[in-house]
């Protein structure tokens, strides 16, 4: 046997978990490696790693849960070993997760396994460089009963000087080359969460954010990989990935000349080189992974269950039905108007009223978006009895009260900025760049004094008004100029990272003292739909665009990764304030009822008939709320298929109840629409069908009838193309919400 044959035989034995012989170790000139297979499993999924002590950490498998016997045979099955956490310096031509510059200028790493530690649900694989005192922990965490595995990396060193982190991804995942498609979300302000689907082709694909404050207006830090060709909703193998981070991120997919798509996810290193001090520990954000053989919706169900239990504040609790004042009055806040809106929402069965922007400012009155951010003092000219007076009014009408704030921002026209110009993000020797209203500025959350200020804003409100039930937390500006007046000159590149560390510290302090208050993450609409924010927030505002037709598309995409309990969806006015489209109230209600139902409208402008329809819908939503907000999602027909309609449903986990949604997305004379089979029901159960808040002159043919789950999943029910209305009341839109109860 020649040297090459001996080498190949030795490598094969290592993959099987056989200890290197000392003789071969001497021939190869390497330290003896003791093979160790690491299997990390959930109820239905597994990750398999090869972690020989003294050797390389290799990634062997991710997918359907695997037996120990099959894990032993992965190499014989042709599974190619990939480095589990690739580093830069030796074999430089491939993409890597981590690259550094040591204190002596050396730019290489060579990491070997020191050991494997398991502590409860966390597996920690400890690596050390062969020469430098540089350490990496590659970590994996499972959640009981949830098919999600989080992975991240932690770095530390004991070198004499600073080690520069040039690239520092949270995780790497090799995906076998084939008919792999990627589904991801893109968009812009008022057009968030749009779905993009495409096959992965050779070359580099990059999805990134560089906003600095918000990170999900344009692209999202979540993706799905369909392994069996064009994505299907309820069939096919899918890997889902969600980066749990509130700041700038970068996702890379490198499809090179190997048999793999190389997926990396982590903090965006652009202009963010990190100088790691000796003894300091750098922890990357977690990448959450899930696998399903039940298509995109299957992966979504995994994410939703995990999120409700572990990643969303109060995620297992039902959300109240609210009226938000913004589109009703904008900045025109006054006691009489607030009283009227509270009375109206209470009369329609709502449970909460939220007063939006325009309630504060003394020296600078907040009548538009140019003034007073940072001056969180009640404008008593508008509200003579203050916040407590409004809370008392809400109690009079039997509802709760909430308020809008934007604590991370200030205006140049504010008392705060006049007193503390050093609190803003501003580059040395430059004039600050100003945003919204020509005056908006971002406070520097890397500064502990600013962190104290932001905490104090919330703490003051909740201490002074303990009955304050809800906070709408907004963030309407990005980082517009790079520069921290707090960070030292050698740490200016830390700004983006330190901002979000500061943001998280503030959130942790708030939640430690006020664990029960409901907080919405609003950031110029959907700018903070991510799992870095949601552990401290109950929900997010999907978009500033409340147009029901466009919301179908945005909420469809958003539901890939986020459950409806966190998706604020409101009934708004017609014509819509963003698109100016006129959509009938029934359709607007039916779209809003597929998320966390609320209203964004001036009730006094509604007719009595419209109020009655909303009252009925709110009553019925309360009945189905547990299914919608805590049930399993099954997306049936995507609006992106352009077949004239869209449909989805939520099913109670025990399959005893379900809610079916159907919306017509375009209108033509004599149009043909597909009949849509249902999903997720028990084929052995029988379900009675009831349409909610019907506006037709006579019931649908299947109203009150009982069908088997098997029939409904094989055939579905025929949805009339139009509503049966008197001629003068006919409308161009149609939609249906069906409530199914097992008997």
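^ structure tokens above, recovered residues below v
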């Amino acid at each position: 046997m020649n040297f090459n044959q001996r080498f190949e035989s030795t490598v094969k034995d290592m993959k099987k978990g056989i200890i290197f012989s000392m003789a071969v170790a001497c021939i190869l000139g390497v330290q003896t490696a003791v093979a160790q297979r690491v299997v990390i499993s959930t109820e239905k999924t597994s990750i398999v790693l090869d972690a020989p002590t003294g050797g390389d950490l290799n990634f062997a498998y991710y997918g359907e849960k695997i037996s120990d016997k099959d894990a032993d045979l992965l190499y014989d099955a042709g599974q190619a070993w990939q480095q589990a956490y690739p580093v830069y310096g030796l074999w430089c031509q491939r993409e890597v997760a981590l690259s550094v510059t040591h204190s002596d200028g050396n730019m290489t790493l060579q990491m070997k396994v020191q050991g494997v530690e398991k502590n409860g649900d966390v597996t920690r694989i400890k690596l050390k460089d062969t020469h430098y005192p540089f350490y990496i922990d590659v970590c994996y965490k499972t959640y009981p009963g949830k098919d999600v595995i989080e992975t991240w990396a932690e770095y530390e060193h004991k070198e004499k000087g600073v080690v520069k982190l040039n690239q520092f991804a949270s995780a790497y995942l090799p995906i076998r080359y084939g008919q792999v498609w990627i589904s991801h979300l893109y968009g812009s302000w008022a057009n968030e969460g749009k779905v993009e689907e495409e096959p992965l082709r050779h070359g580099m694909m990059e999805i990134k954010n560089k906003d600095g404050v918000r990170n999900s207006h344009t692209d999202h830090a979540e993706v799905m990989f369909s392994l069996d060709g064009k994505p299907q909703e309820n069939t096919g193998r899918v890997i889902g990935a969600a980066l749990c981070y509130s700041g700038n991120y970068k996702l890379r997919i490198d499809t090179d000349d190997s048999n793999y798509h190389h997926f990396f996810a982590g903090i965006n290193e652009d202009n963010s080189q990190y100088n790691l001090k000796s003894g300091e520990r750098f922890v990357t954000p977690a990448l959450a992974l899930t696998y399903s053989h039940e298509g995109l919706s299957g992966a979504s169900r995994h994410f939703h269950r995990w999120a409700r239990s572990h990643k969303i504040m109060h995620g297992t609790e039902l959300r109240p039905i609210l009226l938000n004042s913004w589109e009703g009055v904008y900045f025109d806040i006054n006691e009489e108007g607030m009283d009227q809106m509270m009375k109206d929402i209470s009369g329609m069965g709502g449970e909460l009223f939220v007063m939006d922007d325009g309630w504060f400012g003394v020296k600078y009155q907040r009548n538009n978006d140019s003034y007073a951010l940072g001056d969180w003092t009640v404008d008593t000219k508008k509200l003579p009895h203050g916040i407590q007076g409004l809370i008392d009014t809400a109690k009079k009408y039997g509802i709760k009260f909430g308020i809008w704030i934007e604590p991370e921002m200030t205006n140049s026209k504010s008392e705060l900025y006049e007193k503390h110009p050093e609190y803003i993000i501003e580059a040395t020797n430059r004039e600050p760049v100003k945003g919204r209203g020509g005056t908006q500025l971002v406070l520097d959350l890397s500064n502990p004094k600013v962190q104290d200020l932001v905490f104090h804003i919330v703490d003051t409100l909740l201490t002074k008004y303990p009955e304050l039930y809800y906070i709408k937390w907004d963030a309407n500006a990005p980082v517009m100029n790079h520069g921290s007046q707090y960070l030292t000159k050698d740490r200016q590149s830390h700004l983006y990272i330190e901002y979000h560390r500061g943001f998280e510290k503030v959130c942790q302090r708030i939640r430690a003292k006020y664990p029960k208050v409901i907080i919405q993450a609003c950031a110029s609409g959907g700018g903070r739909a991510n799992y870095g924010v949601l552990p401290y927030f109950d929900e997010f505002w999907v978009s500033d665009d409340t147009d029901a037709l466009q919301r179908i598309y945005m909420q469809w995409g958003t539901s890939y990764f986020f459950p409806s309990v966190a998706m604020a969806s409101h009934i708004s006015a017609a014509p819509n304030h963003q698109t100016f489209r006129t959509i009938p109230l029934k359709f607007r209600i039916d779209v809003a009822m597929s998320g966390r139902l609320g209203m964004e409208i001036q009730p006094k402008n509604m007719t009595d008939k419209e109020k009655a329809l909303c009252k009925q819908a709110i009553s019925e939503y309360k009945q189905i709320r547990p299914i919608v907000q805590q049930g399993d999602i099954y997306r049936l027909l995507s609006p992106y298929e352009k077949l004239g309609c869209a449909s989805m449903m939520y099913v109670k986990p025990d399959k005893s109840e379900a809610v079916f949604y159907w919306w017509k997305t375009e209108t033509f004379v004599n149009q043909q629409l597909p009949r849509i089979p249902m999903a997720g029901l028990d084929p052995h159960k029988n379900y009675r069908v009831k349409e909610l808040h019907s506006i037709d002159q006579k019931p649908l043919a299947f109203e009150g009838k009982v069908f088997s789950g098997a029939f409904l999943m094989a055939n579905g029910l025929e949805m009339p193309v139009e509503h049966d209305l008197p001629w003068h009341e006919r409308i161009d839109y149609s939609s249906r919400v069906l409530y199914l109860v097992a008997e």
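Confidence is low (pLDDT under 50) at residues 1-32.
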